[in-house]
Amino acid sequence: MTEPLSLLIIAMAFVLGGMVKGVAGLGLPVVTVAVLTFAFGLPSAMGLMVVPGLMTNAWQALGPNFWPALKRISIFLIPSLFTIWFGTGLLVTLDSSWLVAMLGIILSIYAITGISGFTVTIPATKERFIGPVFGLVNGITTGMTGVTSTPSVIYLNGLDMKREMFIQSMGLVFLISYMVLTVSLWMRGLVTMEIGGLSLFAAIPALIGMWVGRWLRFRTSEASFKRLFYRVLLVIGLYLIVRAVWL
Question: From CA 33, how far away is CA 46, in angstroms rounded?
Answer without folding.
Answer: 6
